[in-house]
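hiii, so i know i said id send this last week but things got crazy w the move. better late than never?? heres the sequnce for the chain we talked about at the cafe, plus the structure i predicted for it. fair warning i was half asleep when i ran it
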Amino acid sequence: LFLLNAAGFLVITGLLLASRQGSWTQRLGLVRPARPAIVASAALSIPIAVTLLWLAYRYGQLEQTNWTLLFRGFLIYPLWGIVQQIFLGPVLTVLLLASLGSGARPTPALRLSVAILAAFVFATVHGPNFALMSATFLIGICWSYLYQRYGSIIPLAISHGILGSLFRELAPSQFRMNGSVGLGHFEWLWF
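okay and structure toks below
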């Protein structure tokens, strides 16, 4: 079901963007030059990853960590990260830029406003898990801004996969509630 949803989302997004100039893979940022985006994404992700590891160590979460699940998440989660980054970048961020901009080159204030609005919408999709929504909002601002700056999805999807996996496995359980979203978040109330 997950793969079917992801494939459907990509096809619909591709069809929506196909009418514009350039191939849909270019419009989605899947084939853009990635070197500057890789550096910027790494500069964002590494300090956050180190902080999550330090907090897990500090609060004794490392002993409870399932390292197999964590490394499996590093391999699989970036695929889902591509879908989420397409929603945040080419769909949501570009839509907001087109709606709020005058058609001229966006000002830094407009870029930041769009990043904040896009991150807010992106965070609400992760509800009602308030901890996950808060973390998603903050990192979503950065990811939206980096997409506006570099237009490349793959480094952001890798960042999303690594940070999402670390958050899911290393954040204290009372904080992350298994990283669940939607009605599944309330599953813990039923036991």
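btw The radius of gyration is 17 Å. thought thatd interest u
miss u guys!!
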